[in-house]
Amino acid sequence: MTAKIIDGKQIAEEMKAEFREQVAKLKKKGVTPGLAVILVGDDPASQSYVTSKERDCEEVGIYSDDNRLPAETTQKELIALIEEKNKDPKIHGILVQLPLPKHLNESEVLLAINPDKDVDGFHPINTGKMVSGEKAFLPCTPHGIVQLLIRNKVTIEGADVVIVGRSNLVGKPLANMLIQKKPNANATVTVCHTHTKNLAAHTKRADILVAAVGRVNTITADMVKDGVVVIDVGVNRIDDSSKKSGYRLVGDVDFDAVKEKASLITPVPGGVGPMTRTMLLYNTIEAAKAFVGR
Ligand code: GUN
Alpha-carbon distance 89 to 291, whole Å? Predict the structure, then answer.
């Protein structure tokens, strides 16, 4: 079997077309959804992520409020800015780009964001609601993965899902979302990590396999069964002298070999990445809708 390659970019474009209409409706009600993006320091990867998020906002008509702070910003200054955005009626969503410089306390920063404006879904109130199955802002990467599965008509209910990686950003929230007693969930989920005894024994059982560890070739063809659906969340730079930049991006999965056994597979780049950015727009529009009382 050769896999169908999931086109995350195309699905993201379809969703953005839906969002443009929703934003136009909100504007008619006198509300322009607004997203405050806060970046501390000058990490080039973070700068490029933030620039792309702001471009996405403009594309669908969301007001993007750009806040780039020097690396020496203090905890107090950062919290003061978040509190200003918490009060600002033009702002419906607040995103603090992670990772923060080492001298800043990340969990205290995330706690300072008004949970009603927490479009990253990282505030413990939103995490708690998600775990309990209540309505909450869902973290963008796992939510994007669920959307990719739904829009490719993958049956999630009853599926054996194996997630490799237990990060707060992807593995843990995705596992929680997929075990809910709800449509497009109801899966049997296994979470594997660095202390898993026999990784391949688990991955071979997967109907849906999610790799989110950040290591090249973590999943090879001998570790998957025929017909598996593979979601590759890894973004790894490897040297490539044929590229102007000197590198190219690859995922955690040995794509060329695994695609010969899978039924569906996401590429890197162009799979999960565009969906993460799209779900941020979704959460920002939802925040604005809640602000106007729908
Ligand atoms: N850094 C890497 N991914 C993310 C994300 O989804 N949100 C934020 N705020 N920072 C990130």
Answer: 9
> pLDDT of 9-26, one tens digit each?
999 999 999 999 999 999
Mean pLDDT along residues 82-89: 98
CA 29 / ligand 1 centre spacing (Å):
31
Task: Give CATH 3.40.50.720 domain extents, the chain.
Answer: 140-273
Cα separation, 168 vs 160, in Å, equals 21
pLDDT digit string (tens) for 120-137?
999 999 999 999 999 999
Q: Whose CA is nearest to atom 8 of ligand 1?
A: 97
Among the CATH numbers 3.20.20.140, 3.40.1670.10, 3.30.2350.10, 3.40.50.10860, which is that of 31-114? Answer: 3.40.50.10860
**Per CATH, which fold does 140-273 belong to?**
Rossmann fold (3.40.50)
**97 in catalytic set:** yes
Indicate the pTM of the whole model. Answer: 0.96
Q: Mark residue 170 as left, alpha or beta (left: phi above 0; alpha: psi -120 to 50; beta: remaining).
A: alpha
Residue nearest to atom 3 of ligand 1 (CA): 98
User: What residue spans in the chain does CATH classification 3.40.50.10860 cover?
Assistant: 31-114
* CA–CA distance, 105 with 82 (Å, rounded to integer): 14
Q: Which atom of ligand 1 is nearest to the CA of 139?
A: 6
1 C-alpha to ligand 1 centroid (Å): 35
Q: How many angstroms is it from 277 CA to the middle of ligand 1?
A: 10
